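Reviewers asked in the last cycle whether our approach scales beyond single polypeptides. To address this, we selected a multi-component target totalling 339 residues and predicted its structure end to end. The input consisted of the following lines:
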Amino acid sequence: MTETPLWEVFIRPRNGLAHKHVGSLHAADSRLALQAARDVYTRRGEGNSIWVVPSAAITASDPDHADEMFDPTGDKVYRHPTFYEIPEDVGHM
Amino acid sequence: MHAALLEIADDCLVLGHRLSEWCGHAPMLEEDLALPNMALDLIGTARVLYDHAGTLEGQGRGENDLAYFRGERDFVNCLLVERPNGDFAQTMLRQLYFAAFMEPYWRAAMDSTDPVVAGAAGKAVKEVAYHVRHAGEWVIRLGDGTEESARRMRRAVDALHRYTGELFESSPAAAAAEAAGMLPKRAEMRGDWDRVIGMVFAEAGLDLPQDAYMQTGGRQGIHSEGLGHMLADMQSVARAHPGAVW
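The resulting structure, written as structure tokens, was:
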């Protein structure tokens, strides 16, 4: 089955939550991929909605570029709400 | 009334066990989970029906007695479900033939005068609806796939179609339960079955056999050679260790 395309599977555990990546599988086309996702990843009531996406359609960041992609945020502590002190007068936010 | 329930319970158990024989042997990992999923649906239905049949019979027999301590001639499943797995095409066509019958059957059985049957039907109808979808998609893809897959699908039709007529026949036991409103009339599933099979075959590019000879006998306990071997395997642990529990 080496020629069978690879699919990424996303499952929404409950209404109101976001679909979350759970894994991948092989299937000939999108309809069979949905069925396979149901059979492989929702056997224990994990969700109520499934997305399948061809793995080839995903553009991923390059691990070799991780330094320039992600390190610059490391020293910007003021982007976290915990950086700021809230004046007493403001009360409960 | 318990005898009519046994027929349906045996159908579900025997087909469930056949599907479970694929576990660890399916052509791809995804199907290695899908086939036992369907097996567990069917075995779950069989358990409810055996339990209820044992209660109605009133002889103190439980689900294990009925599943594991009856011989081949006592099994009253239809011949279709005991057919050996063959290749993947045959397994999927067998599943489609059976599920396309059971989906309207369980839907009708939700109105059963027997609340246990109605409850089992409400759960099973969703399960077999998925079996129809899954098996149907495979029959379409194999029938309309490569030269080799189409050849195997045609061979599956040749091997299995003769066992579909029995699905619509009511034994005397079934006819009594149908007259009492406990179970749906099997013959009435014909229209739905023809429509689903017709749609799938048209999309799969398969020809529906016309005026094919229909083999029957399962409801009288007259089975093909394969069932005895299957039961010997399925029942061996329970018979070697009667009453054993996990």
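The mean pLDDT of chain B is 97. We regard this as preliminary and will revisit it once experimental data from Aim 1 are available.
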